[in-house]
Every structure is written in structure tokens, then in C-alpha cells.
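Give me C-alpha cells for this 234-residue protein.
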Amino acid sequence: MSTQPEVDYVDEELSEQAIHDYLAAHPDFFEGHANLLNSLQLPHATGGAVSLVERQVSVLRQKDLKLEKQLKELIEVARANDLLAAKIHELTMQLFAATELKTTVIALEEGMRSGFDADHAVLVVFGDPGAFDDIGIGRFFRVVEKNSEALSPFKTFLETASARCGQIRDAQRDFLFQEDADEIGSAALVPLNDGSKIGFLAIGSADANHFHPGMSIDFLTRLGDLVTGALKRY
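Here you go.
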């Protein structure tokens, strides 16, 4: 009677899986088998072979470059946010300094043009146009009855009362920017007050990609809150 231990023979595929499972369960295995680690060979993208250690170094280097790129992107976003915060602060100070509706609107127009690099901007306020004849701000300040047929292209936007970015419809662009409509590649529509009760602010850019649906609207929402607070004083 043989006393040799029984040997379980397994096929190659199962054996590879067993090795995989063992190494996954014992990630420190190669710490005690450095000679084995250095002798393992893996195919390289160039067609040659490298040791497992070299391959790991290459992978880590690639991860490091990816993380470095992500870090640079985060830094750029942080700098952009700091710049926007500074612009919001400056506009806030200008609006606080204004003591009447006319000077408030003037400060807002100047802020859009110089502080936020808007190619064109329009402040639409709901009300009786005749009640604002003394403002005389020009094309930036537009007073329209809320039930005016001219606002029908904005029906969905006014119902959702949420900031929107991207390319706008021709009818919207023509109403807002008039003879400058052809220069507008993209725009942001910012509701003023809950449900756009006061009106809305439109910011136009010649760059078709400057405002796009995928961008964050947090900054635009804060801008809308600021303008709303300034206008509600009157």
C-alpha cells in the first residue's frame, strides 16, 4: 500500500486562477521572494520583455503623470474660482455704493462688461415700460410686461426658473441682442428672484463654447441672487 500523498491534478486554467486568488489574498508574498519577483518577465508595449518590477515602476510613473495632470486641472479651477469670487466681491461693492435704480443698473452694466468680460449683456425687468422712462440706460436695460408675447420664446426658461447656458434659440437671441444677435455664439440666462418674478439677466459671448450646458451654474446662480437683492431695494 502506497504512503505517497495524493496529488490533485488541475487543469492549467484552474491553476492560474488559484495562483491569482492566492496572490490577491497575500499581497506581501513577494516581499519574502524578491529573487522570484525580479525573474518574472512581462510583455512590454514595445514588443520586448521587462521584469515585473520594471513594469510596476512604469505603471506607477504613468499614474503619477495622471495625478499630476489632475492636480494641475484642480489648481486651474481653484484659481478661476478665486478670480470669479473676487469679481463678485467687486460687483457687490459697486452695487452697495449705488443709491438709486439708475446708478444700480449702470454699475451692473459696467460690471458685466469690464469685470466679467461679457461681449453683450441685457437686463430684462418685468413691469410697465412707461414707469421707467427716467432710467434711460440704453439697450442694456429692457422693461417688458411679463405677459408680453415677446417673451413667449422664453416660456420654458421662465417656468423652470433655473440658470441656463449654451446656444439659445434665434428668437431669443434676436429679442435680447437685437442688431448684435449675429455676434452671439453662446449665452447664459439667469433668473432674478424665485420663479423669475423680477426678470432675468442675459449674458452673451461671441465664443460658441464660452457658455455650454455642461458648465456649473453655481456662479451664475449667485450672480442672480446678488442682482436680485440689488434690484429689490427699489
